[in-house]
Design goal:
35% of the residues lie in helices and 14% in strands. The chain is an alpha+beta fold and 215 residues long. The radius of gyration is 19 Å and the shape is globular.
Length: 215
Amino acid sequence: AGQDTSAATLSWTLHLLSLYPAIQDKLAREVQTVLGGSNTRDEPFVTKKVISSLSFLDAVIKESMRLYPVAPFVVRNLPSPVSMKNEETNKPPTVLPAGSIACIWIYGLHRNPQFWNRPNDFVPERWLDPELRDEGITFGAYIPFAIGPRNCVGQPLANIILRGLLARLIHRYEFRCDDLTPDTDPASLRKDMQVGFTVLPKGGVKLSVHDRIPC
């Protein structure tokens, strides 16, 4: 639970970055600016203070987890009735009685066009640019770690691990998808999901890894 989830999220993130090299280059420039331009082994430690200054890296990880939450649903027992407004105004609200078992489909919530513009696109800037900010961010439709008193207890640890690892990897290496050409739609190369203990890229992710040239 503490390792497979982080590994799966990192796999999805590197997969997306390999398909969108302009986003990867923008991330590399931020990381190299903060950590220094050298990709040698003696770069400074990625501390919590360093991580907090990597705003675009934070946006990349959030956008990756929006598109591919490794736990795509949660199940909850309702201790009290829940009334849900019906979209058709002439119909009464739908009431889930106390004791019901509710399944929240996080994957669908994260891609619901009611809350997200371009819901299936990889757009890290939506987390930074006020003009691109979606209702899903404002109104709590982003819950990769679930939400409330029974959310994932490993969330703080995962946040540090993911950001520290990704910063180190992008600082030193460039990740490429060999099937990507200038005429290829990146979305057509996206991996399907494969459900195991967590949601993984079907068939694994095959990337070319190259030493990164300092920006």
